[in-house]
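Hi there, hope your week has been kind to you so far. It would help a lot if you went through both lines with me. No rush at all, and the record is pasted right below:

***
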Amino acid sequence: MRLKPHAIDVRVSEDPIHWFLGEPTHTRSSYHLEHAATEFEVRGLEVDWACIMWDADLRFVDGGWHYHSFRGDVWTNVIKADQQRYLLNAYRVLLTRARQGMAIFIPPGERRDPTRLPTFHDVTFEYLRELGLSLA
């Protein structure tokens, strides 16, 4: 939910037919990168290339995953094990859709916005780099 400052609004639902099958000239197709598809819209489907947006809901901290949900104007901890599994699975679905390659966008954060602090993303960024991902 805190990717909107980067012009990514996952609450806007796009017709998967247009998104997956639209011609390159069709602005509602994935070619234009104007509409993001959620894990629900891509489940069971593959794309050649994917750009995954990593929000602060799943953070790698102190050697393990920490689970969060954005409620109102604050991040809250996800306590229930089934909800944690659900969140982890959502990222698994997104990370397994690309056939040829993917880019992972991890926001740099914004110190003046307590809902988008750089520390929310920095540890996950470093963890993925340690795994061997080429990150810029």
Observations:
- The mean pLDDT is 85.
- The CA atoms of residues 51 and 112 lie 26 Å apart.
- Residues 4-130 form one domain.
